[in-house]
Amino acid sequence: MGYNSTMQEPLSLRQRLWRNTRSRVIAGILFVVPVGVTFWILELLFKFVGGVLHINDLAENLIKRDSQWVPWVALAIGFIATLILIYLIGIVATNVVGRRLLQFGESLILRLPIVKSIYGSAKQVVQTVSVPEGSQFKSVVLIEFPSPGMWSLGFNTGTMQDKHGKKFVKVYVPTTPNPTSGFLELLAEEDVKKTDITVEDALKMIISGGILSPEKFEIWP
Question: 83: Cβ–Cβ under 8 A, 6 or more apart, which residues?
């Protein structure tokens, strides 16, 4: 019998343990980092509010100066004030004038050499991941891209027709790990393979470089 060079040798126990450990660690990082950044930003807001309102002095004026409840009252005041500040920022962000002010501030940030790269990438990823499933992408598909025999994950964003009535599927092929950049392909319907992968799972797969991916998926014409 001949040896089939296309068949992969089974992984050893050590290799399987290493692969599983690595995938779990990276999955943990992908979960912890956004949470950590969120808490860090909230902490900065909390300290800012505390400095502006002089929370400790305010708490001491509300209750006895030597009371053991002063730190807890100060914490409660700071927490409520921070929530109010976030709510007010939300009102400003959804207001026409407020949006223009934020856009102006954003344009200033995007002029800073290093800051613009960090801010721009973070904003793009957050906008992509926070979009409700299905509002931008209709389904997850596979297409032969960038060359025959190489399959890429893409998002079906709709269809369009030429003047002769031929239908084309609009497929957005994102790049890894930033799904906000990619390629727009117009393909005949028979060249697009539908899958049962959800948009959410596809985004996780793209951002993690394939580490967070479903074990099985179905393809149909």
Answer: none
